[in-house]
Every structure is written in structure tokens, then in C-alpha cells.
Design brief:
- Helix 2 crosses helix 10.
- The protein has a domain of 190 residues: Lambda Exonuclease, Chain A (Alpha-Beta Complex).
- It is α/β, with parallel strands linked by helices.
- A six-stranded mixed β-sheet has the order 1-4-5-6-7-8, with helices on both faces. Strands 2-3 form a two-stranded parallel sheet.
- Strand 7 and strand 8 form a beta hairpin.
């Protein structure tokens, strides 16, 4: 049960990251691996992989182009397999002043993807009511039955929407839309479906939709704009079906129950599953 959700355009990136609350990434990890892994991920300080770095630059180029050069730095084109190239790159990283250093080839890929995605989202960007990288915070509780007993457990929630459109004041009947950018290896139907299932897009879609519904009083349309990393770096638009939202809602609620039961029993962060499970794959 969502008790309260508030859109937070005032929330800085630092404040958002430091806020102790459950987000869609956490719920996905609980669904696929369990609470212990989700807790480990939440406390991890592992550096971004190449794929995540390209993806985050792609987001910034598309949604916040004015912020790109305050967050990212394009590395010089040198052959890092050579001693000279390694030295040049190491010296460049040391002088980066905390900015994310991106290789030139990776920067070109992110830029090509961004130009392609922009052709799809530009009609939304021109609307006066659009919001980018908008954070939300909220409070929820889950009521559930475990071993025949009823329990209730509270949660703090948070999330960040890539793009949100709300009805124009002159067009109240216009629908709300959440738009999320995804960077992918390719846009074949089979690859998109595999990514949507494997990365639990349904959980993200349902969690975000329910939170926006609570904040604004209307169920939004949810759209993914996917851009491929391989040439010709095309982009496609995918609208999430009501059935996918329903499955995602079922899965994220189950994840919340798992977290509630894990927390209620005071399991330590290094808790692992015990016992033997029969495998019949």
C-alpha cells in the first residue's frame, strides 16, 4: 500500500543517492537473487562498467545535454595497449578532477545513440509540462501473511524518472506518460524481449507507474525508448502493455514481502540461504 509519494525536483543527485530507501533496482535484485544480494549491491562501491558508463552518458546527452561537460570528460584517442598510450591515459585520468572519463570510441557510440533517441522524444521535449530526471520519494507499507500470521511492515521508497509528461493546463484529458531510455546491444525483437524479461522491466514499469499514480492521481502510460550500441545506432519505441504492468506489480509486491520478512527476522547483511534444494532443470 502506497501511503504517500511526492515528486522531488528539488532533490540533488547527492541527496538522492544518500537517501536510505528502496528503489526499482533493489526490487529487481530481490526478485532475481534475493534480499542478501540486493543489500550487497546497495552497499557496493564498484566502479561503473563500460556498458553502464556508455548508458549514463547516453542518458545525459539525450536528457541533460547542458550537464554533460560538468560530469564527463572525453579521453584522448591513444592506443592503450602501448606503454605510451597507457601513460597518457593514466595522466589524463589523474587530471580529470573527479569527472567520469570516457574513451573516445565509447563517447561516439553514446552520441550516435542519443541523436537517434532524440528523434523519438523531441515531441515530448517541446511540451511545456515535461520534466527530466525527476526524483520522487515515498512511504509505503506491506500487509502480508506468513506461516498463518498477519504482519505489516513499513518502507521508504525512492526513484528517478528519465522523463515525465503531465497534462497541459489547457488539456486536462491528456494522458500522463513516463518515458525511460534503455541502451542495448541490438534492437531485434528477440533481444528486446530477452532484455525486458532478464532485466525485469516489468517491475520497473509497474513500480514507477504505481508511484506516479499515487503522486498525480492518474495511471500513466509507460514507454521505453531503446537505442542500440551497434551501427547504425537505431532507436525504437516500446509501449508497455497492461499485462506486463500487472505481472511486474505482482513481482515487486512479492519482493517487498521478502524484504519485510528478511528485515523482521533481523537477518545480517551476509545472510545466505541454507539447506538443500532438489534441482530438476
Amino acid at each position: 500500500m502506497l501511503l504517500k509519494v511526492t515528486l522531488r525536483p528539488d532533490l540533488s543527485e547527492e541527496e538522492y543517492r544518500s537517501r536510505d530507501a528502496i528503489n526499482q533496482s533493489y526490487l529487481k535484485r530481490v526478485h532475481t537473487h534475493g534480499v542478501a544480494h540486493a543489500e550487497a549491491d546497495k552497499n557496493s562501491k564498484v566502479q561503473k562498467s563500460k556498458a553502464l558508463l556508455i548508458g549514463s552518458l547516453y542518458h545525459c546527452l539525450t536528457l541533460e545535454p547542458d550537464e554533460v561537460h560538468s560530469r564527463y570528460l572525453r579521453a584522448p584517442n591513444v592506443d592503450r595497449r602501448t606503454k605510451y598510450g597507457k601513460e597518457v591515459h593514466a595522466e589524463f585520468e589523474q587530471s580529470s578532477n573527479g569527472l567520469e572519463v570516457v574513451k573516445g570510441d565509447d563517447w561516439d557510440v553514446a552520441e550516435a545513440m542519443s541523436k537517434s533517441a532524440f528523434e523519438i522524444i523531441k515531441s515530448r521535449r517541446d511540451r511545456p509540462d515535461v520534466m527530466y530526471e525527476i526524483a520522487f520519494t515515498g512511504v509505503a507499507k506491506v500487509d502480508y501473511k506468513w506461516d498463518g500470521k498477519l504482519y505489516s511492515y513499513p518502507f521508504n521508497l525512492k526513484g528517478k524518472l528519465d522523463l515525465l509528461t503531465t497534462p497541459w493546463k489547457s488539456k486536462k484529458e491528456q494522458e500522463i506518460e513516463i518515458l525511460d531510455l534503455k541502451s542495448m546491444a541490438s534492437l531485434s525483437d528477440s533481444d528486446v524481449i530477452a532484455s525486458a524479461r532478464g532485466s525485469c522491466w516489468g517491475i520497473q514499469s509497474a513500480f514507477y507507474s504505481d508511484c506516479v499514480h499515487k503522486a498525480l492521481g492518474s495511471m500513466p502510460k509507460f514507454t521505453y525508448v531503446c537505442s542500440e550500441k551497434e551501427e547504425p545506432n537505431l532507436s525504437r519505441e516500446f509501449v508497455v502493455s497492461p499485462e506486463m504492468i500487472e505481472r511486474g506489480r505482482h513481482n515487486y509486491l512479492r519482493s517487498l514481502v521478502q524484504v519485510a520478512e528478511w528485515s523482521r527476522n533481523g537477518k545480517p547483511k551476509d545472510y545466505g540461504y541454507v539447506g538443500v534444494t532438489e534441482l530438476n532443470a
